[in-house]
């Protein structure tokens, strides 16, 4: 018999945790090894249980889901993380994926959809909303702007590193340039992509197929 994937469930609502536990009981290749009611407890139990997968709520007391992702990935990058939430805002999706999570799914999905999402992630894939997928050919044809041509090679490098969740300091170290120069490149990116902040710059780049989250 194949080894079951061990799962930790973290959500500040007991009813949600119990519901997911009962649902996973019907999945023959998943086994719940622990529960947590906040992000801090989730990180502690990850250290103790070392599960294969963590199902994590986004908004929890003491430590939110995004901070918990960072801590979990510090413990082991091999541990898979899926955010299970009521939110569908593009900025949340970007922040979660750039933090290192493999999935972002909503709580109103069906049991079959949950099973598919878990299997996809455990097989090495990722699951996140279509809002961050590259636009279709039809959408691209309606927008004649060549966004890649707008950017210099250095600006494109900075944009790629932004999509990986790097700070200005990290980007400066990666590219061997000053932090002030990075800030100038970011300002140019915002202007050329016609957005107000770096998160929206990355979201636009993802939609236009300029960068990926992998």
Automatic annotation (TrEMBL):
The keyword Oxidoreductase does not apply. The keyword Transcription regulation applies. GO terms for molecular function: DNA binding. SMART domains: HTH_LUXR (SM00421), REC (SM00448). This is Stage 0 sporulation protein A homolog. It comes from the Bacteria. One of its GO terms (biological process) is phosphorelay signal transduction system. May play the central regulatory role in sporulation. It may be an element of the effector pathway responsible for the activation of sporulation genes in response to nutritional stress. Spo0A may act in concert with spo0H (a sigma factor) to control the expression of some genes that are critical to the sporulation process. Residues 6-122 form the Response regulatory domain. The modification 4-aspartylphosphate is found at residue 57. It comes from Halarsenatibacter silvermanii.
């Amino acid at each position: 018999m194949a080894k079951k994937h061990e799962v930790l469930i973290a959500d500040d609502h007991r009813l949600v945790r119990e519901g997911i536990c009962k649902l996973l009981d019907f999945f023959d290749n998943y086994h719940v090894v622990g529960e947590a009611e906040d992000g801090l407890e989730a990180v502690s139990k990850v250290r103790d249980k070392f599960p294969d997968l963590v199902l994590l709520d986004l908004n929890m007391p003491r430590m939110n889901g995004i901070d918990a992702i960072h801590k979990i990935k510090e413990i082991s990058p091999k541990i898979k993380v899926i955010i299970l939430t009521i939110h569908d805002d593009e900025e949340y999706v970007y922040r979660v994926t750039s933090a290192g999570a493999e999935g972002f799914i909503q709580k109103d999905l069906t049991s079959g959809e949950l099973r598919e999402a878990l299997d996809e992630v455990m097989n090495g894939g990722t699951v996140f909303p279509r809002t961050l997928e590259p636009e279709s050919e039809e959408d691209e044809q309606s927008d004649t702007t060549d966004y890649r041509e707008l950017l210099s090679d250095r600006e494109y490098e900075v944009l790629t590193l932004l999509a990986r969740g790097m700070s200005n300091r990290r980007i400066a170290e990666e590219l061997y340039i000053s932090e002030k120069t990075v800030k100038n490149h970011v300002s140019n990116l915002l202007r050329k992509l016609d957005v107000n902040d770096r998160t929206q710059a990355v979201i636009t780049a993802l939609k236009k197929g300029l960068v990926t989250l992998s």
